[in-house]
Every structure is written in structure tokens, then in C-alpha cells.
Amino acid sequence: MSKIKATKNNSTTDVICKSAAQLFRTNGFKNSSMRMLAQSLGVEAPSLYNHIGSKSEMLQHICTKVANDFGAHMVSLEEEELTAVAKIEKIIRFHVKMMLKHFDEVYVANHDWRYLDAADLTAFLQQRKAYETAMVQIVKNGIHNKEIANIHPQIVVLTILSALRGLEFWEKYKQHLHTKTLENNIVQLLLKGIKL
Amino acid sequence: MSKIKATKNNSTTDVICKSAAQLFRTNGFKNSSMRMLAQSLGVEAPSLYNHIGSKSEMLQHICTKVANDFGAHMVSLEEEELTAVAKIEKIIRFHVKMMLKHFDEVYVANHDWRYLDAADLTAFLQQRKAYETAMVQIVKNGIHNKEIANIHPQIVVLTILSALRGLEFWEKYKQHLHTKTLENNIVQLLLKGIKL
DNA sequence: CCTACCGATCGGTAGG
DNA sequence: CCTACCGATCGGTAGG
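The joint structure predicted for all components is written out below.
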């Protein structure tokens, strides 16, 4: 008897993980209990274990999904023939899109990855490192091509990624700011900052 | 009999809070126990309560200190006669200095403020909002004076503050990057991004 | 400063 | 899907 409804595109497990992401985002992973998650889904806590293996498995599921999405975009970008600045612009716009579409999951991946189990933690950090390295390479090429100012590439990348992480604060401004305005303004600010 | 040593400038309570900040930064507030804190100080957990009132009181102490430091700097800045861009530059350099000098405390204030008790949480968020508002005002003045490009002021401020928050990731690069290079590069990138 | 200990809450299992 | 329940861990107190 399923009280938790699966939909055409989402299994029962997916529905639970979606609820979990929202809960973790609001309360933090460690401050979210399985009893709270169960209540939000209208069942008792032990019933959840018919669909998921453990609390940390849900966290792993969320973090892996996010890391894979970003990683896949970076790989597809590496195959494109674009200037370095155009690639950075695409990365910025992708981050905005991800944040709007999968806000809870991206937020959780950014905040609670440190609670991943040892093996998953290593894999996650490796993926993140690879993402950073790929971006550093793009910036290096841009400096070499005289597209980008001669700022330390590592600093350029960390500054841009940190600025984009700040998208998580923009939820509360959604009513006042149009999404496209937001996106175009941040692209303008960051690209002008790095251009030669 | 004090096992925890007070120094000339720091009371026993300060020494405990400093240790707590380090612990909270490493493990997160909710994942740090009073038993862990006691162990790092070489005493048993109940002994801590001779010097501090509660776990959340220490968090409040840390967050309040950080918020006050940033707030005081902003107030002193408002009294100075400087261009808008020069004020933004001073803010950026102050953030870098704070992050280097009080890394644990700033990190904890940025991450774990949501675990503050209701009253302290309200006060903290009010201080942060006031800080943001003051910065938005500086940017508005800069746009009006044709110093700063016509980007939405709220977006400028959130982007800069988010980028500066990313300073917390720079610890691991300390060996490879000189502090002043780091500071000058981020100033260059962000200021060029906003200048007209 | 310590030992002893309390009530609350946690993730998860047994069994149906 | 539920009820009943376990062992572990938590923040904090009592009493000396």
C-alpha cells in the first residue's frame, strides 16, 4: 500500500529524496531527522526504510546527482569551439540555471557534502577538484590568448565560483528581480572583471 | 584549580570559545559535542559549565563578535570622505584581513548562524541586513556619481560579498599564494567588474 | 575540577 | 505500511 505517490517520471525513492533535499536545505543535514522527513511525507519513520537504505544514502544520492550534472556540462563544454570568455559565460549561465531548477539539491551539495561517508566524500571532492581544474585551464588559455587579464587563474576561478555560490541568497529577492536581469548582470560584472 | 590556562589578554572563557570556534569550523556546530570540546581542552565535559553557560551561548558569542567587528568597520567607513569605489576597496581588503585573522570565527558565523537561538538569530540577521543596506547605499552613490556601472546595486553587493565569502576556501592554497597577491588580485577583479 | 547520571532524541531493526 | 523497541549519543545537572 503506497502512501507516498510515485509519478510518471519519479519513483517513490525519487519523491522521498526530493523531500529530503528540501528538508536538508531548510534545517541542515545533521539537524534533520528521519522522523521529520517521515512526517512531511505522511508516514512513520520506519516505513521510509522500505524505499531507501539509510539517511546518508539519500545525501549521497543528492550530492552525486549535482556533481554529475555539473561535470557533464563541463565535459560537453570542453568539446565546443569557443573563446575562453564565451566558455566562462556559458559556465556562469549554467550555474544560474541549475540553481533555479534544482535549488534544494545544489544548496545541499554545497553545504552538507562534508557529512558524506568516507568513500563518497573522496569521490565528491575529486569531482569538484576536476571541475575546478578544467575551469582553471580555460582561464589559462584565455590569458595566453590575451582574452583575459593576467590575474592568477586559481583566484579567478575561486572568485567566480564563490560569487555564483551566492546565488543561493537570491531566492528571497526573486519577487523583486527578474531572473534574466539577474543572470545578465552577474555575467556582465564577472566577465568585465576578468577581461583584458 | 584551573587546567585551562587564561592568558594576559584572554579569560578562561575566551580560551574555551576559541577552541569551540575551531571545533565548530571543522565539524560544524551540530556535529560538535561538548565532550569533543572538553577533550580538546583536556578536561571532562561537565567542567566546561563552570566557565560557559551553554553550547549555544558560545555560538552566540562567536557570531556576535564577528557581526560587531564588521559592523564597526562599516560605521567608521561611513564617516570617511572617500569615493564609492575607494570605499568598496576598503571593504574588500577588510574582509580579507578578517578572514586571515579570525578564520574560525568568521567561518562559523557564515555557516552556523542558523543554529542561533530565536532572539540572537533575529539580532544577527538584522545586523547583516544593515551591513548589506549600507553597502547598497555606497554602490547607489557610486552609480549616481558615474563611478560605477549601472548594474542593479543589490546584485553588485551580493556578488561581491559572495565572492569574499569564498575566501574560506583559500586556506588550502596558502602555501602557493602570497596573501598580498591574493588580496590585490581579488580587488582588481571585483573593482574592474563594477567600474564604469 | 571530577564522577555519576538524567531525560530527550537520534538512526535503524524486528516482526507482522 | 505499522507498532514496539534498541543501543548510542546528546546537552546539561547534582553533588561533592
